[in-house]
Amino acid sequence: MNAPTWNLDTLFEGGITGEAFTGSLDEVDHEARALVERADALATPGPSWVELLQDLEALLVRAHQLSTFAHCCACADARDKPASFASGRVESIFVRIDRCFVPVEAQLVACSQETFDALVALPELQDMEPRLQRMRAKAPLLLPRAEQALATELAEDGIHSWGRFYDHLNGGLQVELSDGRVIGSAQAQNLLGSSDREERREGLQALDSAWEQASEHCARALTHIVGTRQTINDRRGLDELADTCFGQRVTRETLEALLQASRRAQPILLRYLKARARVLGVERCGWEDLGASLGDGSGWDWSSSEGFILEHFGSWSPELADFARTAFQGRWIEAEDRNHKRPGGWCARAPISGESRIFMTHGGTFRSTVTLAHELGHAYHNHVTRDLNPSRRVIPSTLAETASVFAESIVRDAALEAAPEDQKLAMLDARLSAGVSFLMNLPARYDFERELYTLRRRGDLDPVELSETMVRIQKDWYGDALSSWYPHFWASKLHFYISHFAFYNYPYTFGYLFAQLVYNRLRQTGDREAYVDILRRTGWQQSEELARDTLGLDLEDPDTWWQAIAPLEQDLEAYEARI
Q1: Phi and psi, residue 330, nearest 5°
Q2: Is the pLDDT of residue 295 over 80?
C-alpha cells in the first residue's frame, strides 16, 4: 500500500483558490483590521473589555484554521504560488492580531493589582485568566507602547518575510544525484536512512552541495532574522534567552539543568557511536551513518507502519488506537514520497474542524514509522484539549512534545519486544539513535544558535564562517566518534529560520526527557486518566509547576532529567552484548 495523501476538504472545500477559503480569508482580514482600532480605543481594564477579548479569541481560532489550511497546501507542493501567497496573507493577519494585543498588554501591565483582579474575576473571563496572567507577567519583555506597536507592525517585513523566503527556498531546493536524477530535499533526506552506506554518503554529499549553492541566500535570511531579534533585545536590555524562556514556560535554571544532564549523557552516547561503527563495519561512523537503518529497518511500508501503530497504541489505550484509526480513515495524513514537497514532518491543529493534519514523507523505514507515531501523538494532544477554552490550549513547544515522544516510546518499546532475536539489535539501535538526536544533535543546534548572536555583532553573517562554526560545534558534541561532518547543516535546518520564535531546538530535548519521565511513571501505574490530565494542563501551566503538581518532580535539578537518561546505559549494555 502506498503512503497516502490527505483530504483537506473538511477544512475548506474548493482548495486554496476556492470561495470557502478566500471568502473566510477576506472576512478574517477585515475583522483583524477593525479589531486593531477597537483595541487602541480601550479604556481602563474592566467589563468593557469582555467583548473585545472574546472577539480576539474567536478571531485567533479562525486565523489558525486558515493558517493550517494554507500551510498544508504550501508544504504539499512548493510550486503552489497561490498557497504561498495565501500563507503570506495569513501571516499578515497574525501580525495584525499581535498588534491588537499591544494596547491590551500595555494596560494589563500598567493597571493596579486591584483592577487586574477585578477583571479576571468577571465570569465571562474566568477561562481566560491564565492568558491574562501571562500578559501581565510579560512586562519585562515589552517596549514602551508606541515602540511596541511599531516593532509589531514592522515584524511582517523585518523578520517574518525572511522566514517565508527561506520556506520558499527550502521547498524548491532540488538535489542532483550522481546518476543524473534530480529529487526534492525531502526525498534526499530519506536517503540518509538507507541501509546502503554508499547511498547514504551520496545523499549527504548531494544535500550538502545543494545547500552550499543556496548558502548565500540562507546566510542573508539568518542575518536579518537574528539581527531583528538582536535590535529588539538591545532596546529592551535583554539577552537572546529572555523571550524563549518566557514563551516556552521554563526558568533559566530548568534550561541549564536540562543542558547539564544532556552533556552528562555524552560519554554513554559516544560509546554507543563507537559500538555502532563496529556494527556497520567501519572504523568510525560518519555523519551520513547517524540515520542508517540496521537489520530490516527498511522493510516498513505504509501498511506495516499503520498496522503496527494501531496494534500497539491499543496496548496502552483503546482510545488512543481509536483516535489514530480516525486519523487514518479520515485521511488526515500527507505521507506520499514525491518531488516538490517540503522536507520535515509536523502536525497542525484545525480548531474549527476539530481535526489535525499531519505532514511527512514516509520513506519505508522504521524511522518513518516512529515519525508517524510522533505526529499522531501531537494530533492526540490536540484531540484531548479540543474542548478547552482557546486560552487554555496554548501549548509551548517544550510541553507540546510530551504526547508525541510518549507515542514514540510506545512504538519503540513494542518494536523491541516484538522483534525476533536477530532483529533486537536494530530496535535497540533505534532507541540509542534517538538519544543521540535529542541529547547531542539538538543541544549542538542550541549552541550554534547562541553563537549566531555573537557572530551577528560583527556584521552580516558569512556562510563560510557559519559552516566552520557548525562543524566546530558538531565536533564538540560528537567528539572523536565521527569521521565526517555536515558543514551546511545550518542552512538545511528549517528550525533556525522560524521567525515567530527563536531556539526551536532545546524544547525537543525537554520534550524527549519529560515525556520519558511521564512514560516511565505512568507505564507502571497504567493511569490513562493521569496522562490525559497532564496533556490538558500543558495548555496553561508553567512547566515546573506542572511537573511538581502531577509527578512530584523538580525540573531545576539536573538529577531529575538524569532519571530519564539513565536507562540508555542499560540499552547500551544490551546493545554491546549482541555485537
Answers
A1: -85, 0
A2: no
Place of cell 545550518: 490
State the pLDDT confidence band at 190, using cuts at 50, 70 and 90: confident
Ramachandran area for residue 177 (φ above 0: left; ψ -120 to 50: alpha; else beta): beta
Nearest to 101 by CA among 128, 126, 66, 65: 128
Residues facing 333 on adjacent strands: 358
Please, are residues 561 and 261 in contact by the beta-carbon 8 Å criterion? yes
> Given pLDDT bands bounded at 50, 70 and 90, which one contains residue 105?
very high
> Given a cut of 90, is residue 20 above it in pLDDT?
yes
Q: Per-residue pLDDT for 545 more than 80?
A: yes
Q: Of 325, 349, 324, 345, which Cα lies nearest the Cα of 335?
A: 345
Between the CA of residue 210 and those of 184, 281, 351, 486, what are the distances in Å? Answer: 10, 29, 37, 12
Rounded-to-integer distance, Cα 488 and Cα 481, Å: 20
Sign of the CA dihedral running 521, 522, 527, 533: positive
Q: What are phi and psi of 548, to 5 degrees?
A: -70, -45
Strands (DSSP E) contained in 24-163 are none
pLDDT score for 298: 56
pLDDT at 336: 93
For 48-90, write each residue's pLDDT tens digit: 999 999 999 999 999 999 999 999 999 999 888 999 899 989 9
List C-alpha distances in Å: 176 to 180, 205, 230, 362. Answer: 6, 10, 37, 20
CA distances from 310 to 148, 265, 326, 351, 400 (A): 48, 33, 11, 24, 22
Task: Please tell me the predicted confidence (pLDDT) of residue 371.
Answer: 94
Interatomic CA distance for residues 538 and 380, integer angstroms: 13
Decide: helix, strand or coil at residue 222: helix
**Other C-beta atoms lying within 10 Å of the C-beta of residue 118:** 14
Q: Which grid cell sits at 84?
A: 504561498
Fill in the amino acid letter for 163.
G
Q: How many CB atoms lie within 10 A of CB 172?
A: 14
